[in-house]
Amino acid sequence: MATITDIGTLINYNPEIHGGCPIIAGTGVTVRRIALWYKQGYSAEEIAEQISHLTLAQVYAALAYYHANRDQVDADIAAEEAEADRLETLIFSGDRLLVNLS
């Protein structure tokens, strides 16, 4: 007989990994990352193929979490993009590099 997995165990939070945002249990892969790929048009099967250590069930669990909590995850995505833009602005001013990267 096949093993039954409680899908509620596939997503968890760890304050020491990605600031405590929802992740696929046992990995460092965030629901946010799966949602981003999904929003870019990737299917669950394509995402599982690209992140080969994830099972299709894990990807679908992340997508279910995303759809159940879309406002929160989309807000997290927007905040992450805003922070990236802020950091890029701090690093580059026009064509002049403000930070020595060597």
Give an account of the 3D structure.
With 102 residues, the chain is mainly alpha-helical. It has four helices and four strands. The strands form two sheets. Strands 1-2 form a two-stranded antiparallel sheet. Strands 3-4 form a two-stranded antiparallel ribbon. Helix 1 (31-39) crosses helix 3 and helix 2 (44-50) packs across helix 3.
Q: What tags apply to this protein structure?
A:
single chain; 102 residues; two-stranded antiparallel ribbon; 8% strand
Biggest sheet descriptor = 2 strands, antiparallel
- Computed CA radius of gyration, to the nearest angstrom: 17 Å
Q: Which strands sit side by side, in order, in the main sheet?
A: 1-2
SS element count, helices: 4
Question: Helix- and strand-based class?
Answer: mainly alpha
Indicate the proportion of strand residues: 5-15%
> What do the pLDDT scores average to?
88
Shape: globular
**What is the straight-line distance between the termini?**
57 Å
- Ranges where pLDDT stays below 50 over 5 or more residues in a row are none
Percent of residues in helices: 40-55%
- The SSE order reads EEHHHHEE
Number of strands: 4
Summarize the structure.
This protein is mainly alpha-helical and 102 residues long. Helix content is 50%, strand content 8%. It has 4 helices and 4 strands; from the N terminus they run ββααααββ.
Structural topology:
Elements: E1 11-12, E2 23-24, H1 31-39, H2 44-50, H3 56-68, H4 70-91, E3 92-93, E4 96-97
Antiparallel strand pairs: 1-2, 3-4
Helix pairs in contact: 1-3, 1-4, 2-3
